[in-house]
Design a protein that fits this description.
This protein is α/β, with parallel strands linked by helices. The protein has one domain: Spore Coat Polysaccharide Biosynthesis Protein SpsA, Chain A (Alpha-Beta Complex), CATH 3.90.550. The chain contains 9 helices and 11 strands. The radius of gyration is 17 Å and the shape is globular. The mean pLDDT is 93.
């Protein structure tokens, strides 16, 4: 079984499309869908009741993306967990295709991410990448984006991280990691999870598979561009400090 975990915040309209697409393309697949609602104003009961496989959990406050994902994962019963943003849509039987990928790579690949497609049909930037460092941030701001070759790859490629917008991980590994680091309210928690997973075992790999595709409208729940940039900076800084401390311990 695959457990799909979706965290909703200001995304009810998109969540409706997301759930419809899952049901349309994966109706016969063995899966469960867990929706964690981080939005106290949006009422989702009527929406999720249309789909018997969906279980809804309402948070009393917005706990952040990673914390809400962790809560959903605790309720999951599947061998694999697919974290899915509410503003994504299946374009085919994604569950069937990703299970084929899992079988192909066996136990070495413990996290898989697809090519994310924008509403205009283009490959979304930053769907996968190299580990972020101070040097990488400087290069990115100068337009020297080394990770671009990864998300533009036409074939399966091993990467340092894939986007949390659509990220599949083995539940056993996720549990062993203690889930997402809840100190990240939003942004960089996917990078941190992928890097920590690879730290567990030198043979573990994170796969970016452009053969797998998901529509991602992107950024539909954020409050403002300024707040987004501030949150991204805070998360990136926390990640860099955390990684430096880990390296210093070795």
């Amino acid at each position: 079984m695959v457990s799909i975990v979706i965290v909703n915040y200001r995304s009810k309209i998109y969540l409706a499309k997301c759930l419809f697409s899952i049901n349309k393309y994966s109706f016969n697949e063995e899966l469960e869908i867990i929706v964690v609602n981080n939005d106290q104003k949006e009422k989702l009961t009527e929406l999720v009741n249309k789909y018997p496989r969906v279980r809804l959990y309402q948070n009393k406050k917005n706990t952040g993306f990673g914390a809400a994902c962790n809560f959903g994962a605790q309720k999951a019963q599947g061998e694999n967990i697919l974290f899915l943003n509410p503003d994504t849509q299946f374009l085919n039987n994604y569950i069937k295709e990703i299970l084929i990928k899992i079988q192909r790579y066996k136990d070495k690949v413990i996290i898989i991410g697809p090519r994310l497609i924008t509403d205009k049909g283009k490959t979304q930037e930053w769907g996968a990448g190299k580990e972020i460092t101070f040097t990488q941030i400087i290069k990115n701001n100068l337009g020297i984006i080394e990770s671009r070759s990864l998300w533009e790859s036409k074939q399966d490629i091993m990467v340092d991280w894939v986007s949390g917008a659509t990220l599949l991980i083995k539940k056993s590994i996720f549990d062993k990691l203690g889930g997402f680091d809840e100190n990240f309210f939003m942004y960089a928690e996917d990078l941190d999870l992928c890097v920590r997973a690879k730290d567990l075992n030198s043979e573990f790999q994170v796969l970016y598979s452009p053969e797998l595709t998901i529509l991602h409208s992107g950024g539909k729940s954020r409050e403002s561009l300024i707040k987004q940039k501030i949150q991204f900076f805070k998360s990136s800084l926390y990640y860099l400090i955390k990684r430096r401390k880990k390296r210093n311990k070795k």
